[in-house]
Specification:
By secondary structure, the chain is α+β, with helices and mostly antiparallel strands. The chain is 41% helix and 22% strand. One of its GO terms (biological process) is proteolysis.
Length: 267
């Protein structure tokens, strides 16, 4: 039987990626495919050991369990031997279930299965690989749709009014943002510079709003008190409030979904 090493490695790479994905979900860790790539390559490379018939140690059960623990540690990066043991057991369990399912399907379809060089040659392997790939793709798609629904619920139509001007844009409710101007104690609305670059802001009567981020860095933003801020929850539910707008030169949304950041005090 001819065995193409590149095809064998690629197929095992996909299988290990799939097994690592469902193991991560079982251990309540958010799957990160990019971090799975290197451990999956190591796991797929171990397949070449089956060609070394005289290497009893490398083909031993204990060494195989050790390899599983190693590449799971490389993925999770959690220095807790109990977690690594649990995740290894889950991974091996899923591997056995998948292998048993493959053998069962092959026996049902062909009434036999063949083993050569410890590599099982299934005629339906492309179907199984396709199922794994579709599962991962479908799962990622569902997560993306779920995240989009959550984000849409946090994006509001906002209208800011000044003396003789008004601007309407979308703003994202930043639930961790409690920024306030210290002198007036008014909540702050951060907006992109492009939104108000053509309106007459009173630069002589401005505020300096101190801010800090989680990594300890901080500074001051220039803020302006405006006439009114309207927040549209829906067509019939509009909240009018007072606040300070601070200008941000950076892009707030890569996809241009919103141009401002609402603080909780404005809601």
């Amino acid at each position: 039987m001819k065995i193409y090493i590149d095809v064998l490695l690629f197929e095992n790479f996909l299988v290990n990626l799939f097994l690592m994905y469902i193991t991560s979900e079982t251990m309540s860790i958010t799957p990160k495919i990019k971090k799975m790539i290197f451990p999956s390559i190591i796991a797929a490379s171990y397949t070449l050991v089956v060609f070394l018939k005289n290497e009893k140690f490398l083909n031993s059960v204990f060494f195989k369990i050790g390899i599983v623990a190693v590449f799971l540690y490389l993925y999770f990066k959690i220095k807790d031997w109990r977690f690594i043991v649990k995740s290894s057991i889950v991974y091996i369990m899923y591997s056995m279930i998948l292998a048993g399912l493959c053998i069962f399907i092959d026996m049902e379809l062909n009434n036999r299965f063949s083993i050569e060089l410890n590599v099982i040659n299934f005629s339906y392997k492309r179907i199984m690989l396709s199922i794994m790939f579709i599962y991962i793709l479908f799962k990622r798609l569902l997560c993306y749709i779920k995240d989009r629904k959550i984000m849409k619920k946090l994006i509001y139509k906002v209208e800011v009014e000044g003396e003789g001007w008004s601007k309407t844009f979308n703003a994202f409710l930043d639930t961790g943002n409690e920024l306030r101007e210290p002198a007036t104690n008014l909540p702050v609305l951060v907006i992109e510079e492009s939104v108000v670059n053509d309106v007459p802001l009173d630069k002589k009567n401005c505020f300096y709003v101190p801010y800090a981020v989680v990594d300890g860095q901080g500074g001051n933003m220039v803020g302006y008190k405006i006439k009114n801020i309207k927040i549209y929850f829906d067509e019939n539910n509009v909240k009018e409030t007072q606040g300070i707008i601070c200008i941000c030169k950076n892009k707030l949304s890569i996809g241009n979904e919103y141009s401002g950041l609402l603080s909780r005090g404005l809601i």
